[in-house]
Amino acid sequence: MAKAIRKKRRPKYGRIFFSLLIFGLFIYFVVKLGLDLFYKEQSTYLVTSGSLNIENRYSALVLRNEMIVDTKLSGKITYFVSEGTEVDKNTQIAEIYNDGSKTEVVETSEREINRKKIEFDYNILEYEITNLRNLILFQMDSKQYAEIPSLKRDLMLKLERLDKLQTENKFLSNRTASYSEKTIGEGVLMDGQKLAIYAPASGIITYRIDGYEDFLTIDNLYNINYDEISALALEESSLVRQSVKPNDKLFKIVDNANYFITAVVSNEEVDTYKNIQSISVVVDGKTLKGDVYDVFVNNDRAVVVIQLRERFDSYFSKRVIDCSIIRENYKGLKIHTDSTINIDGQIGVFVVND
């Protein structure tokens, strides 16, 4: 009997290819569905409210309320207060001692002495009035109302005294209020005689000056050519020494409650400072709260003036600082950029009425 011979089946490549194609399409649609669900923006989403902050870095000029104390005496000097110490009025700062060394005699007429008495009283008063006003504002901002009534009483009394001084000497009313000088010690110390030097006002004590205290002042902020500040050679000098002679500066007192910084900004940035009040200033990693005091034109650019009451390290001696100014300008609904469209050249978000 003959044996049947079985034919080998050929692979059906067409069916395999078709199956792979169907499987590939299935995977494609699954992946596409996943991308549509999880990665692509939804056609609708919940809109939340928020704000947009704008931040820029500047080299800013520091303007302070300052008083420089000098002397007409000569002799050895001893210091009792260190750099950067906050002191109250009448705190002993130093002591001048005549050890018998040769002294320089400075003769002062009686008329000049009388005139200086009036001027010195005025200088101290104008400093204290500014300081009291700043302290009252600081207490109000800090919601510490207990001391405000007594501060207001002191302020009213000093304002009355100031009015009397200005009536007595009209010339004094034209002086710059944010800078003043005070001389302590007239005449000559006898051999072995000592004179204690007390702070004529409260504030921060510093023994460093840059020589621009009488010009780079708060009251002079509109008269400064800010384009030249970057080229200004601000070289600090120390007032600490072993002995003093007539007309030597002893120390500087800086207002501890209020100061300003000014920065040159581009004209495009001006609008970001208008119609806002509170801003944040970051100096050496520390964030300070401040207020926009003014924005004005300076040649081809503009100057923004920020008032600060919180301190950064060495604010009492630094004249120029690198800082970032953050302002919160825009508040409203946060919309994804994919939701904006362009209709007739106008870009925005449009409401569709059902």
Can you offer a commentary on this structure?
The protein is an alpha+beta fold. It has one domain (56-332). It has three helices and 17 strands. The strands form four sheets. The chain has a six-stranded antiparallel barrel with strand order 1-11-14-13-12-15. It has a four-stranded antiparallel β-sheet with strand order 6-4-2-10, with no helix packed on it. Strand 13 and strand 14 (301-308) form a beta hairpin. It starts with 12 loop residues before the first helix and ends in a 6-residue tail after the last strand. The model is unreliable at 168-176 (pLDDT under 50).
Key terms for this structure?
354 residues, alpha+beta, 6-stranded antiparallel barrel, 3 helices, 17 strands, 22% helix, elongated
Write the layout of secondary structure elements.
Elements lengths: L12 H26 L9 E23 L4 E5 L6 E2 L4 E6 L12 H32 L6 H21 L10 E5 L10 E5 L4 E4 L1 E2 L27 E2 L4 E2 L4 E17 L12 E6 L2 E13 L2 E8 L11 E15 L6 E3 L2 E3 L6
Parallel strand pairs: 1-5
Antiparallel strand pairs: 1-11, 1-15, 2-4, 2-10, 3-7, 4-6, 7-11, 8-9, 11-14, 12-13, 12-15, 13-14, 16-17
Helix pairs in contact: 2-3
Quick description:
This protein has 354 residues and is of the alpha+beta class.
Low-confidence stretches: 168-176
Kindly report the spatial arrangement of strands forming the biggest sheet: 1-11-14-13-12-15
Number of helices: 3
Strand share of the residues?
A: 25-35%
Helix content: 10-25%
Number of strands: 17
Largest sheet report: 6 strands, antiparallel, barrel
Q: Would you tell me the structural class of the helices and strands? A: alpha+beta
For the record, the count of structural domains works out to 1
Overall radius of gyration: 36 Å
Instruction: Spell the H/E element sequence.
Output: HEEEEHHEEEEEEEEEEEEE
Return the average pLDDT rounded to an integer: 79
Global geometry: elongated
Distance between the termini: 87 Å
